[in-house]
Amino acid sequence: MKDRIFKEIDEIKAEIIQLGRDIHDNPELGFEEYKTVGFIKAMFEKHGFTIEEKSGALDTAFKARLKGKKKGVTVAFLAEFDALPGLGHACGHNLIAAISTGAAIGLSRVMADLDGEIVLMGTPAEEGGGGKIRLLEKGEFDDLDYALMTHPSTANTIDKGCLAATKMEITYTGRSAHASTPEKGVNALRAVIQTFNLIDSSRDRMPLKSQISGIISNGGVAAGVIPDLAQCKFSVRSATFAELKTVVDMVKTVVKSVECFTGATATITTGIVYAERYQNHAIGELYKKYMEQQGEIVDYPRPDAKLGSSDIGNVSLKIPTVQTHVKIADEPATLHTKEFAVASASDRAQEGVMKAAKALACAGYEILTDENLRRIIKKEFDEKVPLYSSLSL
Predict the structure, then answer these.
(1) Count of CB atoms within 10 A of residue 30's CB?
(2) Strand, helix or coil for residue 62
(3) Per-residue pLDDT tens over the stretch 315-329
(4) Lower CB count within 10 Å: N or C terminus of the chain?
(5) Which H or E element spans position 355?
(6) With b meaning 16 or more CB within 10 Å and e meaning fewer, what string describes 109-137?
(7) Among 3.40.630.10, 2.115.10.20, 3.30.470.20, 3.40.50.300, what is the CATH number of 2-162+276-384?
């Protein structure tokens, strides 16, 4: 069956590669990926899938479905496809879409003999928009049993996690005054500066691996005027949601102290929460096996590996999930650089796309056909993944 699936994917190689290049040449920002979605849906319609439009009431979210001979489990291949402002596909999301598309269509060619269903899920706006989080909130993952995806990288890996993350915006309101009589004013900018100072002095109290960085987004309008309004923004990351909440609560305590010290009043706004990612090792090992059968070496992440954040972490809290990584470039062409944007359209990248599509498709096949494997996957999920009552901050 592996040889058959490999052959089926090879037969649509030109379409897969063209899809990745079309998306790369037409970069679109989150929730605006209209051309991209058109490219992907046209390919699935050609290959006999049923398209469900506007999943979760999002214009550029969709599901392409194909059922087997009778009811069974549902394996979803996730497609990201949004670009970065000013950098195009510097995160290689054009390749994620191509890999998942190739895997889904390749596996579809044998579904007539299998129980279950495969779904290609188009998930917009990973880059800051939290598209998958919105889809989760709308129940779009409720009828899916497994989620599989491969992200381009500078290394072939499985089991790489990610950090929980959110954003905070703090607006301080004071009282304006002329700089010659500062005692008549309440300096909102001073409140912002004290916020940075207190956060910096509190870093040793933060949980391990926690990170917080920020900018002053509004510091006043003129040097001769005491600012009555000032704002700052922070990006907060931690190993888990529980630790993220600890850091956010610490910042809120800092803000209360600053209010008392400066007399300014604060309004705090927190963004959506990107949860940490729980990779399902059993599924990852399937991907690793089929990549290595194609001559690739697939490693596990280093303990000191730098981690980012992604909305697929939220998916991994609900169903068994993998986001494996395929090497398409060498450093320094790391994610979110111009060099990586160039690499994501290279011939080397296309070779990685084909291998990853085959590995994902075969992993999906094993999940669909092996009940004992599904028990192993579920056991791991139940033992590893926490049950958060809420991701509210």
Answers:
(1) 21
(2) strand
(3) 999 999 999 999 999
(4) N
(5) helix 347-369
(6) bbbeebebbbbbbbbbbbbbbbbbbbbbe
(7) 3.40.630.10
How far is Cα 48 from Cα 45, in angstroms, rounded to an integer? 5
| Closest residue by Cα to residue 45 from 112, 110, 125, 101 | 101
Fold held by 164-270: Alpha-Beta Plaits (3.30.70)
What is the distance between the alpha carbons of residues 213 and 50, in angstroms, rounded to a whole number?
A: 44
Boundaries of CATH 3.40.630.10 in the chain? 2-162+276-384
pLDDT tens-digit map of 3-21:
999 999 999 999 999 999 9
Question: Which residue's structure tokens are 């590893």?
Answer: 384
d(CA 350, CA 13): 9
pLDDT above 90 coverage of the chain, percent: 97
Q: What is the mean pLDDT of residues 202-212?
A: 93
Q: Distance (Å, rounded) from C-alpha 156 to C-alpha 233?
A: 34
Q: Report the alpha-carbon distance of residue 391 to residue 314 in Å, rounded.
A: 9
| E strand spans, the chain | 50-52, 62-67, 70-79, 115-122, 146-153, 164-173, 177-178, 211-218, 225-226, 229-238, 265-270, 321-327
The identity of residue 241, as a single letter, is F
Angstrom distances, CA of residue 352 to CA of 26, 247, 284, 318, 349: 21, 38, 17, 29, 5
Closest CA to 392 of 223, 232, 233, 248: 248
DSSP classification of residue 11: H
Cα 217 from Cα 20, distance rounded (Å): 36
pLDDT (mean) for 209-238 = 97
Structure tokens that stand for 150 in this block: 């491969």
Residue 29 zone, left/alpha/beta (φ > 0; ψ -120 to 50; rest): beta
Residues in the chain: 393
For 376, the 3-state DSSP assignment is: helix
> CA 199 to CA 385: how far, in whole Å?
31
DSSP string, 252-272: HHHHHHHHHHH--EEEEEE--
Per-residue pLDDT band at 251 (split at 50, 70, 90) = very high
CB 158 within 8 A of CB 287: yes
